[in-house]
Specification:
Layout (H helix, E strand, L loop, with lengths): L5 H8 L5 E3 L1 H10 L4 E6 L8 H15 L3 E6 L3 H4 L14 H15 L8 E5 L1 H4 L4 H8 L4 H5 L2 H8 L6 H17 L3 E5 L3 H13 L6 E5 L25 H9 L6 H8 L4 H13 L4 H16 L2 H16 L8 E5 L6 E5 L3 E5 H7 L6 H9 L3 E3 L2 E2 L6 E5 L7 E4 L2 E5 L3 E4 L3 E7 L2
Parallel strand pairs: 2-3, 2-5, 3-4, 5-6, 7-16, 12-14
Antiparallel strand pairs: 1-6, 8-9, 9-12, 10-11, 10-15, 13-14, 15-16
Helix pairs in contact: 10-11, 12-15, 12-16, 13-15, 15-16, 17-18
């Protein structure tokens, strides 16, 4: 175990921390010098991690570096219920197969931040798979309905006459039982998880265990600077995004979020952060340059320092100087190519644009492709493909510029540059 001095304790318990229940108890445990069991649960209701999750994962890594043990709980039961925290409607239940598939993807990303060698992975089905009705009744008997209706989201829905499923009331109990099963010393979560973590603490105490400490981390706003980071709101930065995409999204952050992201998502020393804040407040700091530094810090964590430098160069060339990247993917047009709905040798091909973009990896889905088209974010050789243009005709061996022949139909020469959004480029080439 690493001995904690005041500087290390400050870094651990102040930076990137919203609240600790109970801080004095946690400090005492840390100074005892024994490895603590740190609980972090996740529901694989979605397969991807974003930077909002990374705030807590970085804190876990800091504890691991001091010699403490992370217990990762895979919520293969609770994910099928859906955590109602912060929601105003009943969640859709997932199948066991969906949960398992999501969990594998999630864990691959989880261990990009947290040390795999210092992590014990446990699946809820290890204990809930043996539960019978008597165990469920025993668990529910330890709490009252009034206690659960005191939770803000439940209270608001109850007062408004909106439905609350019994399964949702069970969710905090199941999460709490995880703490009992693994004898957690500390549980980590976002501020929206406070109720659930406190239920775990109370359940342990009722069962005669030492109650866990609750370590709450801030919830960061997404790239819009307004709402919390969420894939549903399209304001997220995913942990597995390509370096150029990740860097570009950081550059799109509103200036007022720069220091929050530096504070919560990087290891830049506090003294240097204070200088940055002072420069920004005094008008001598350049937000664009600080965001470039931030983008490099974040990209390097998930990829490499070299990838971060390349992403910055790409941004400066493509976005700031409005030039096409030196290297780009080639997408071939042929009779059997994905997204090609009609192909006439020697004449051309008809391409369904939203499907073509999604199948070629230039958009994450057809829905995203249609959104980009409606926003004028799809260009061919610098010309926007207008919202009515779901079909694009590629002219075999054609030359010259892009020509709009009829509503929704374009003739596109081979070799044309296809730009999707600000950072994705591809060159149209003839297939075999």
């Amino acid at each position: 175990m690493t001995t904690l001095d005041e500087k290390a304790l400050h870094r651990l318990l102040r930076r990137g921390v919203a609240e600790i229940v109970v801080e004095e108890e946690l400090v005492r445990l840390l100074k005892e010098g024994r490895p603590l069991r740190l609980k972090m649960g996740f529901d694989p209701s979605r397969p991807d991690l974003h930077l909002g999750h990374v705030v807590g994962l970085r804190k876990l890594r800091q504890f691991q570096e001091l010699g403490h043990q992370v217990i990762l709980i895979v919520g293969d039961w609770t994910a099928q219920i859906g955590d109602p925290s912060g929601t105003s409607a009943t969640r859709t239940m997932l199948s066991a197969e969906e949960v398992r598939a999501n969990a594998q993807t999630y864990m691959r990303q989880f261990f990009k931040v947290v040390d795999r060698e210092r992590t014990e992975t446990r699946w809820q089905s290890e204990w809930f798979g043996k539960f019978d009705l008597s165990k469920v009744i025993e668990l529910t008997s330890r709490f009252t309905v009034a206690q659960f209706l005191a939770r803000e989201d439940f209270s608001q829905r109850f007062q408004a006459g909106r439905p609350i499923a019994i399964t949702e009331l069970l969710y905090p109990l199941l999460q709490a039982y995880d703490s009992l099963e693994i004898e957690a010393d500390v549980e980590f979560g976002g501020t929206d998880q406070k109720f659930n973590l406190l239920v775990g603490r109370e359940l342990q105490e009722k069962a005669g265990q030492r109650p866990q400490q609750c370590f709450l981390v801030p919830i960061i706003p997404g790239t819009d600077g307004v709402q919390k980071m969420s894939k549903t709101l399209h304001n997220y930065i995913a942990g597995e995004e390509p370096p150029t995409e990740m860097f570009g999204k950081v550059m799109s952050l509103p200036d007022w979020l720069i220091m929050d992201y530096f504070d919560l998502l990087t290891d830049v020393p506090d003294k240097e952060l204070a200088q940055m804040r002072s420069q920004l407040a005094g008008g001598s700091g350049n937000p664009m340059e600080l965001k470039k530094r931030l983008g490099c810090e974040i990209v390097a964590q998930f990829h490499s320092a070299e990838a971060a430098r390349s992403a910055q160069e790409h941004f400066e060339r493509v976005v700031q100087r409005r030039q096409a990247p030196e290297e780009m993917e080639a997408v071939a047009i042929s009779a059997n190519a994905p997204g090609v709905v009609e192909y006439r040798p020697g004449e051309g091909a008809m391409v369904e644009m939203d499907r073509f973009l999604a199948l070629r990896g230039l958009a994450s889905s057809r829905a995203e492709a249609r959104r980009l088209l409606s926003q004028g974010a799809v260009q061919i050789n610098g010309q926007k493909v207008t919202p009515d243009s779901l079909f694009v005709q590629i002219e075999i061996g054609g030359g010259g510029g892009v020509r709009k022949a009829t509503q929704g139909i374009y003739f596109v020469p081979f070799g044309a540059v296809l730009r999707v959004g600000r950072h994705r480029f591809a060159r149209v080439v003839a297939g075999q």
